[in-house]
Design a protein that fits this description.
By secondary structure, this protein is mainly α. 96% of the residues lie in helices and 0% in strands. It is rod-shaped, with a radius of gyration of 46 Å. The N and C termini lie far apart (150 Å).
């Protein structure tokens, strides 16, 4: 009976020690996972804040630098370039039409 009681007590102590070790390990894992989770949240918040700051910086850059002083010269230059190209093309076409008309009139006169 002494051996039976001793074996039972040893079994109980082993079970208690195993349970205690498992609980300690579980707490250690949970603490580690909690730290990882907190770090991920911190990183995510920092990244989100950095992205928002960058978007705001870009938005401010393009909205504050946009003004009529930049827009009007571009529009005016484009207008003048288009006008000059159109005038040149129109003059060329008018000269061609005049030349063709003159040639056809001369041919008509020579036929008679």
């Amino acid at each position: 009976t002494f051996i039976t009681v001793s074996a039972t007590l040893a079994s109980c102590l082993a079970a208690w020690w195993t349970y205690t070790a498992r609980v300690a390990h579980q707490e250690k894992l949970e603490a580690h996972l909690r730290a990882i989770h907190e770090e991920m949240e911190r990183t995510q918040l920092a990244t989100k804040k950095a992205q928002e700051d960058k978007i705001e910086e870009v938005r401010d850059t393009y909205t504050t630098n946009f003004s009529l002083s930049y827009l009007l010269p571009g529009i005016g230059g484009t207008f003048l370039l288009g006008y000059a190209a159109g005038f040149r093309h129109g003059s060329k076409m008018a000269a061609r039409a005049t030349r063709e008309m003159k040639t056809s009139m001369e041919e008509a006169l020579h036929r008679k």
